[in-house]
Amino acid sequence: MDDIFKFAQDIRNKITEEELKMGHFNIIITGKTGVGKSTLINSVFRENIAVTGVGRPVTQRTRMIEKQGVPLRIFDTKGLELGNTAQEDVRKDIYELIDWQLKSKDPDKFIHSIWYCISTTSDRIEEEEINWINELATKAQHDVPVIIVLTKTLSRKKGLALKSQIENMNINVRGVVPVLAEPYEVDINDEIKTVSSFGLTELIGLTLQVVPESARNALINAQSVDLDLKGKRAQKWLAGFAASNFAAGFVPFPIADAPVLVTTEITMLAKITTVFGIDMDKGMLAAVVSAIVGCSGATIGGRFAASSLMKLIPGIGTVMGGLVNGTAAAAFTVALGEAYIVIMTMIAKGEIRREDISQQQFIEQMKDIFMDKLTHTRIPMKD
Where does CATH 3.40.50.300 sit in the chain? Predict the structure, then answer.
């Protein structure tokens, strides 16, 4: 058990390192007063990050919202009120903010996207507002992608009509997305019905397409509406990892004496945890890892007998001597990663609660997931 806790602490340390390397997704969110920016922010991003009055002022009219452990900086402007001197001041602030970040020459500070929010409850869009959006989107020296977010879309039909209207104006934005950030109750003939939220997954998907590759991992981590996106990102990373790790698995040395495998597993689990953005302390990591592989038999870091895995892994019996250990280690490590992704997804979706992890039924469930992944791991053979 001491080995498990040391392994868990090493993962926790590596997670901190990976979070620092990830950097931040930086976004400006603007629009008129009352368009529902705070509701949108809290619905899209994890940790209920937008709290009224919270945020560090970066200009007189803009505050930066951030929270430790979330790779996200939101620059929230005051409401853009047409025909008001304050409107021009907010515009100036946005341009200056983008310029300041660029002049820092630090890519982690660059503004990666702008969400311009328009409420679908408005009767019409002012021509001046459209001109301002177009100006913002075409400022060549900034090259920051602008997405129009149609908030408070209580009627999908009205939202789609407004989207079509804006698209026909040929504004140089990257897209128009109608959203309803949170469920809405309506009274129809004295019967309360709930209109489900929608559009948030599409908003994240579009934003992910238009931001630089360097900001995508941070965006995937920070967003909370598309959990399948987190799983796919982790699987994509693991696929590349598996290819290199399988190749290393054929190296003929006693795997029990190979600390490189321990380092590999620590890095793998830390990267997967970072993709999901789940706050995993040492105790939680130890409980999950212990539940997956158990405290006897096959254990962490390749400290297991290859013969105990030979019956579980298809094709393993065709490899001889020290090569068996290496191939078994590769299969074990990748199966561990696959199982960990499944469990992270379940935790993110609330199918496994933190307090459930140490309960026997969930321990058995996690073991079963690992064994299923292990028995279906395909081992590529060298000619």
Answer: 22-222
For the chain, what percent of residues have pLDDT higher than 70? 78
Phi, psi of 291 (to 5 degrees): -65, -40
Q: What is the full DSSP assignment across 283-311?
A: HHHHHHHHHHH-SSSS-GGG-S-HHHHHT
> Where does residue 371 rank: exposed (0-12), middle (13-18), buried (19+ CB within 10 A)?
middle
The CA distance from 104 to 109, in Å, is: 7
**Which whole number is the average pLDDT over 217-239?**
93
Measured distance CA(220)–CA(235) in Å, rounded = 13
> Alpha-carbon distance 137 to 117, whole Å?
14
CB neighbour list of residue 245: distance below 8 Å, 6 or more residues apart: 264, 330, 333, 334
pLDDT digits (tens, 9 = 90+) for 118-137: 999 876 787 888 888 988 88
Architecture of domain 22-222: 3-Layer(aba) Sandwich (3.40)
CA distances to 163, 184, 219 from 177, in Å: 7, 18, 18
- What is residue 69's predicted lDDT score, i.e. its pLDDT? 87
| Percent of the chain clearing pLDDT 90 (strictly above) | 36
CA–CA separation, 163 vs 228, rounded Å? 26
Beta-bridge mates of residue 164 = none
Query: What pLDDT is recorded for position 103?
Result: 87
- Give the Cα separation of 336 and 90 in Å (integer): 50
Cα–Cα dist 350/358, whole Å: 15
Q: Identify the CA nearest to 60 among candidates 101, 29, 93.
A: 93
pTM: 0.85
Structure tokens given for 280: 């995993």
| H or E element that contains 377 | none
Buried b (16+ CB within 10 A) or exposed e, 161-192: ebbeebeeeebebbbbbbbbbeeeeeeeeeee
